[in-house]
């Protein structure tokens, strides 16, 4: 596991030189038992101003000195507010530890002043942790991202899903595999299998519905995959897929099945 190193280019996220802030400023919430943070710069944002957007690059960690910020995610063009943070709260930690792109959008609510937690201090403190503890923190942040992705998937579903095991056969273009689904609707399903295809890969599925004379033939695309994890036996390995092509006849049969008609 490599130590984290700063990517600070000498400026704050809004482009102000760090030299504008001589020395290190100490920030402590007026409430008791609140942690004390070393901040290298302060930035003020006005109502509705975006601090950073989902999918953007950046790993600065912020502490709210005054005001409020809104944490949100956009799903199918609609904004969903996840949380409102207030003075003393910290955000941006997940991306700092996981070194990933921003997983949410953060906006100011009213006039808000933020402190940028000093990168040299943050890197030094993080890298002094044991390999085991750093590993635990990295796993936790990755899991937090997956939970948020799962939330997004659930919210984005336009209709109920049928929780039922259905036998199916799929091909990767060379071999054919038998599998089953435990979660299906008219837009996609989860296929339980050890034979995982690549994300974005298209393939054909033959799915057998109860009482159906002929299996449904559907062209699918892999949306996400999950490997077997012995620590979480309740989560089977498999692929979440979306249907990219299905005949009107098969769509009607599947719709009637999912709706219970």
What do you see in this structure?
With 261 residues, the protein is of the alpha+beta class. The protein folds into two domains: 138 residues, Jelly Rolls; 94 residues, predicted glycosyltransferase like domains (Thrombin, subunit H, Beta Barrel). Helix content is 20%, strand content 38%. The strands form two sheets. Strands 1, 2, 3, 4, 5, 6 and 7 form a seven-stranded antiparallel β-sheet that branches. A six-stranded antiparallel beta barrel has the order 8-9-10-13-12-11. The protein is elongated. The N terminus is likely disordered.
Mind telling me the CATH superfamily name of the largest domain? Jelly Rolls
Low-confidence stretches: 1-11, 17-32
Strand content: 35-45%
Number of domains: 2
Shape-level CATH architecture of the largest domain? Sandwich
Which descriptor suits the 3D outline?
A: elongated
Terminal residue distance:
54 Å
| Structural category | alpha+beta
What is the averaged pLDDT score? 80
Number of helices: 4
Order of helices and strands: EEEEEEHEHHEEEEEEH
Task: Say what the CATH topology of the largest domain is.
Answer: Jelly Rolls
* Helix content percent band: 10-25%
Number of strands: 13
CATH class wording of the largest domain: Mainly Beta
């Amino acid at each position: 596991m490599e130590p984290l190193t700063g990517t600070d280019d000498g400026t704050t996220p809004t482009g102000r030189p760090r030299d504008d802030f001589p020395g290190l400023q100490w920030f402590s919430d007026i409430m008791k038992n609140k942690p004390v943070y070393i901040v290298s710069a302060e930035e003020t944002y006005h109502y509705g101003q975006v601090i950073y957007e989902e999918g953007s690059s950046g790993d600065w960690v912020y502490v709210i000195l005054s005001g409020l910020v809104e944490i949100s995610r956009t799903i199918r063009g609609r904004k969903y507010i996840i949380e409102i943070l207030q003075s003393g709260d910290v955000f941006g930690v997940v991306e700092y530890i996981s070194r990933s792109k921003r997983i949410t959008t953060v906006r100011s609510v009213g006039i808000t002043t933020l402190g940028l937690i000093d990168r040299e201090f943050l890197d030094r403190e993080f890298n002094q942790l044991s390999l085991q503890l750093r590993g635990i923190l990295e796993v936790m942040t990755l899991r937090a991202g997956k939970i948020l992705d799962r939330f997004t998937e659930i919210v984005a579903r336009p209709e109920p899903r049928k929780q039922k095991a259905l036998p199916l056969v799929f091909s990767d273009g060379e071999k054919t595999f038998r599998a089953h689904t435990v979660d299906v609707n008219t837009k996609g399903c989860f296929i339980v299998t050890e034979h995982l295809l690549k994300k974005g890969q298209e393939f054909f599925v033959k799915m057998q519905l109860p009482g159906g004379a002929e299996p449904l033939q559907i062209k699918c695309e892999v949306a996400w995959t999950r490997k077997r994890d012995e620590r979480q036996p309740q989560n089977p390995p498999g692929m979440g897929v979306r249907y990219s092509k299905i005949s009107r006849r098969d769509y009607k049969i599947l719709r009637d099945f999912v709706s219970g008609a």
